[in-house]
Structures are given as structure tokens and as C-alpha cells.
Design brief:
The structure holds two protein chains of two kinds.
Chain A (H helix, E strand, L loop, with lengths): L24 E5 L2 E8 L2 E7 L4 H22 L7 H6 L5 E3 L2 H16 L26 H7 L9 E3 L2 E3 L9 H19 L4 E5 L2 E4 L9 E3 L15 E3 L2 E6 L5 E4 L2 E4 L16 E6 L2 H13 L4 H8 L2 E5 L2
Antiparallel strand pairs in A: 1-2, 2-3, 3-7, 4-6, 5-6, 7-8, 8-11, 9-10, 11-14, 12-13, 14-15
Chain B lengths: L4 H15 L1 H11 L12 E12 L5 E14 L2 E17 L9 E4 L6 E4 L6 E19 L4 E11 L3 E14 L4 E14 L26 E17 L2 E14 L7 E5 L15 E3 L5 E15 L2 E12 L4 E12 L5 E11 L9 E2 L17 E13 L5 E13 L17 E11 L1
The chains are: A alpha+beta, B mainly beta.
Chain lengths: ~325, ~425
Amino acid sequence: MPLCLGSITLSDDILPMNEALHSIAYKDSQGFITGHFTAMAGPCEVIIETSDQALADKVTKTVADEAWRIESTFSRYRTDNIIYRINNANGEAVEVDAETARLLDFADLCFQVSDGMFDITSGVLGKLWKFDGSSNIPAQSEIDKLLPKIGWDQVSWSNPKLQIPAGMALDFGGIGKEYAVDSAATLARAITDCPVLINFGGDIVATSAPISRQHWLIGIEPLALGQNKVPPKVALKHGGVATSGDSKRFLLHQGNVLSHVLNPKTGWPVADAPASVTVLASNCTQAGMLSTLAMLQGKDAEQFLTAQEVEHWIQRR
Amino acid sequence: MKKNLLLKSALATATMTLIAGAANAEEEQNKTAPASKEQAIGDWKFDAAFLFYSESDSRVSAIEPVFNANKRLDEDEYLNLKLTVDSLTGASPSGAVGSDQPLTFTRPSGNASYTVNANEHPLDDTFKDTRVALATNWTFPVSETTKAGLGANISKEYDYLSASVNGNISYDFNNRNSTLFAGLSYAFDSIDPVGGAPIAFGRMQPVGDPQNKLSGSQDKDTLDLLLGITQVIDRESLFQFNYSYSMSDGYHNDPYKVLSVLDDQGNYFDDGIPVANVLFESRPDERTKHGLFGRYKRFIDGDILDASYRYMTDDWEIDSHTVDLKYRFTLDNGDYWQPHVRYYTQTQADFYQPYLRQDQALPQFASADYRLAEYDAITVGLEYGMKTAAGNQWRFSLEMYNQTPTEPEKYGALQQQTLLPDWNAVMFRVNYSF
């Protein structure tokens, strides 16, 4: 279920979204109506506890529109949005809108609290690292060429003006999807009091506990089919769940498995990172950031999340 | 990495700000009134406004440019400077009643006179003044949950000086869902009318006769107190409640307002003096007001409903009620239309009298000022707000005001006259924030 979630590799295989793909399919089962659509390079679903198809239609459309809106607003693959303007400003200051400003403020805070390990300028590394299960490691000289172009501390951000050095680029891949889930949930809450579960490729929010049962049950994708340890199902009443990591995205290097989570300071995958980290928090963005920061801790991921006193599940290879 | 719980709570706060950003930004915008665009520390923000005001029947018209500058000194610290210039011209009801004879009045300066035609409502057309006002305000955090403000204002007209200092403090509690507010202000006003302030109930004298005028300036002290609470009800709505208290002491008269002295037929009593028989008004030298104010604000799918009610009562026996409704329709591009309706009604002051009678004893206090009479007023308006590509904001607002006073009791010849005519005003305001 979780797709590719880390901050860096998310966008490797995203193609520009074709507007014609904006369609929604519905499924009705046991008092819940589920709407399916595709956004942010993955399957998305909205589960509403209702038998009112018109309501389900309205909620799902609103959620899907918000997903598509955020996707096109912050996609690195369009030439008509703020990310393009920022990344092609050639060192000039760009005045940003309020929503982008809030995301930048958030990214700034994440950079500060992670001592620079979470960095929205590190997306350029994705050009070098292809986590395809092979042992194709980029040359150190290639990495060294990119490192000067990484570092949020080289960016001047004074709301509403953002100035990044020419050659650097921003990528909201590490927070965009979680933010989209939360933002869509806010819109869904405004429409209905019925319990709604929103799932954008493994980033999940429940607006409230279901009425007909105790909680929502969220499955965590196992590392491999038929493995001995089956991950537990997560009981979610309300709040957000996010997963970082992807069992299918790794490289082999000198007999070790390299995770797809990259350290922006070295340009190399974080050593001993878990295969996946799932966190339950009060909203999806918070859950997503905690799971990303845990991945960046490598072998200390468990200790980190235990200290944060959040419910979490970690899978290692 | 900071492996402590602070990280989780920092993220919790930051994600709330991120997700609820749109709604909160709107609220913040209203709190720190002049600042509409998010402002970085050290940045100045400016508002320039231009108001045009015109009353019906060639009464007062005014143009008022306003310039506001706001500097964000620190995270929660702002310095605000506001300069207002008013330029007023036109005529204002003097308080005298009309007559079937032309009436001659001496101008307040005592140096000239003017004549009002028979059966016309007497207006004093000497109304011409320019006011310059400067206000400064400094808001700063005292602690995590407490903010304070200090301010000073000074306003100068040709014959009027007003200066005030104010301080306020607000305290957030209940997870910042509740805010308590207390404010205190002291104002000093001094008026020095051209030709001197008239003695209370002094007879208007012909041109060149300075008797019945006081020398020097007349002063007033005012103390205002405000206590309030703002309560966030849920994600979309908040409620605000205020109590206000105001006490003023000193010269409360309007030196340009008079009362007609009539005989038993309802005509001006002829005492042989060759200007209309009017006495300058006399008001108490103290006034205490109490006010209650409630406001409900709700966000509805990006639109904003803003409803408020105010009740005022004072020891001059003026009780008033104000109901104010605004609804902001937000368009897809972020522009908005905001219709506005306000209804106001007040009872008359206990010493309000439209005229005096020669055959009756003079009361202790009396004023024929239409602003102290019983009346209803309604304001309807429409505002359009738009943002430029650079994030600067234009606001255009047009408002119409209609005042309907209760016509006082009349007798004899007075029945031919309208003592308190209805009147209208139009206000047009342009505001640019950058």
C-alpha cells in the first residue's frame, strides 16, 4: 500500500498528470461508500460512512479536486506553477502566495528541528540515485558536484519573498502529499459530519471514528509476500497515519541494502535506515514528518520515535 | 537532532498553522487591522485610504486622506503610525427652528452675519475646518500568552486640540481559544472657538458685540475603560463580548449650537435685538456612558459572516442600539464582495429640547442639537476587495446613510416648519494596502 514516500525519491517516476485521468470510480459496501481516483502518482481513496451517494459524490469530488489542485500547484513537472517560477528564477527573489509561504515556513521549521537532515533543496540528488534494486551506485565525483547545490541555509526566505541561488531547486515532495491529505480532510469536514477516511497512497487521515465500528483498520504493506512477520494492522479512530519507506526501492552496495532515504549532507543513503516507518499522529503532515525524521535517524529510528511518544511501527529487512 | 518531546509539539503546532493557515490568516488579518499581507520582521506595511463624504442638501462634505504605516519589529511586536487629514466644508444645523420670516444670525466669530430665508431650515454655513490627526501605537509581547499595547494620539483643528494616551493588555488562555482584553485611555480636549466660547444660555448678540462670550479655551477630560473577551467556538466561528465605560468631565457644549426662544404663537420672541432670538446651548459638565457589545463571526466555505450588536446607555438618558451585519462573498480568485447593513436607533437626551419658550422657566440644561434627539439611522453599503498580482490589496466601498429623526411636538406657527428633517449621506472610500 505505501508507495514511494521518502522526501527525495518520490518524484522520480511521477509523470505530468494528464487531466483526462481525472476520473472517479465508486464502490458501495456495508454502509461505506468508497470513491477511487488517481493523484500524486498513486491510487487514492475516500471512504465515507454514509449511504447517501450524492453526499459521497460531493465529498469525493472535493477531496479529489484538492488533491489535483495541490498536485498541479506544487508539481516539479509543470511550467505554469510557483515551483517552476522559484526553480527558474535564476537567483532573483520570487514573491510567493500565502499557501506556498506556509509550506516554506513549515519546511524551514523541519530543517531547523532536524539539524538540516530534512531539506527541501535536496531533491536534485534524485537525478543520481536510481533505487531499482540494482547495484548501480553513482560516482562520488558526481555526488560532490551536486552537494554545493543543496542546503536550505543558502536560501533567503522572508515571507513573502524567497530567493534561492541559481542552480538550486525546491521540491515539496517530502511534505506535499501529507499536506494534501490534511487540506482535503479540512474541506471534507466542512461538508459533512459523517466519518471520512482519506487515503492518498498510504498517507491517511480519518476525520472521526466510524459510527458502526470502533475504529478504522489500516493495513501496513508487508516487506515481502509470505514473510514470517506480518505487520500489525493499525487501529485509527481519528488523526493521521503516514508511512515512509518502500520495500521495493533500494540498491545493493558491497553486500548491504541501501535504503532510498538520502542524507542531504553526504548525498548518500542514510545507513541502517528501516525499510518502512509508520507513525500515527494528530494529523497526516505531523505523522509524515515524524516518520521521515525517523528514517533519517537510521539505526536510531526506534529510539527516536519512542522518545517522541507516538504510536509507530517499524519494519526492517 | 533534538530527540525530545519538543519536536513533536513543535511539529503539532507547525502542522496546525500549515493546515488551518487559510482560516487563521483571515483572523489574524482582522486582529492586526492594518496588516493584510503577511509581514516579515523588520518590514513596513502601508495603507493609504481616501474617503469622500457628502451629506444631502449641501450640508457637510468632507475629504479625508489617511496614511497608515505599520512596522513589524519582532515576532509579535508592531509599531503603527497613522496620519489622518480631514477637510470639511458645508453647513450644519445650528439648532434654531425655521420661521415664516427671514432670520438673521451672527456668525460664531462675532464679525459677520448670515441670513436664512423664510421657511428654510437654519443651517450655519460657517462650517469649514481642517483637522490633522496623528496616532501611534506600539504592541509588544509580555509573555508567551500576554500581549500589551501603548499608544498616543494627537489631533488638531483650527479651534480644537485633542490629545490622548492609551494602554491595553490581552491574555490568551484555554489553548489560545480565549482572549481576555483590558484597555484604558485618557484624553484631554481643549476648544478655543473663534470669538470665544459662548456663556451657557447667552443671548446671541449682533455683529461686533462681544458680550456673553468667555475668554480662553474650554477643556474636557475623558477616561475610557474597555474589558472584553474573545472566544473561539469552533474551527469556523468566534464570539466577542465587550463592556465599555466612559467618563468625561468638563466643557461638553457645542459652542456653535443654539436654541430658538419662541412666543406663545410659535414665532420668534421679539426682544428688540436685531438678530434672531436664540440662546447658546447648555449641557451638563459630566457624562458617564456604559456600553455592551457582542459580535459573532463565522467562516462559511471561505465566506465570512460578521454580525454584531451594541447597546449604549448614559446618564444623559441616551440609550442606543446598533445592529451591524456584513457578509463577505469570496470569489474563486480571492476577490470579495461584502454587502453591509447597519441599523441604529437612539432615544433623546433628557435635556434635548427643539426650542425654548419665553413664557416658560429656563431649564438647567438644554440643547437643540439634532445629534441628541431621538432618531433612527440605516446604513447600507457594498465593498469590493481585490488583490494585485504582487499581493497588494485594493478595497472600494460605497455606503449610503439615512437618518430619520422623530419630529418633536410643535404648536402655532411652528407647525409650518420641519424641525428635524431627514437627511442622507454618501461615503465612498478607496483603500490601498501595500
